[in-house]
Amino acid sequence: MDTNKSTLTALQPKQHFEILDGLRGVAALAVVTFHFMEWVFTDPGKNFIGHGFLAVDFFFCLSGFVIGYAYDDRIAKMGISRFFLSRIIRLQPLVIAGSVLGLLAFLFDPFGGHPELYSTGKIILTFLCSILMIPYPVIADRGFNLFSFNAPAWSLFWEYMANIVYGFVLYRIRKGFLLLLTIISALALCFVAYRSGNLLGGWSGPTFWDGSARISYSFLAGLLIYRSNWIIKNNIGFIGLALLLLLAFVIPFSSWNWLSEPLIVLFYFPLLIALGAGASLSGSLKKLCVFSGNISYPLYMTHYAVLWMFGNYYTSHQPGGLQLLLIIITGLILLVGAAYLVMVIYDIPLRKYLNNKWNSGLKKSGETQL
Question: Is 264 exposed, middle or buried (0-12, 13-18, 19+ CB in 10 A)?
Answer without folding.
Answer: buried
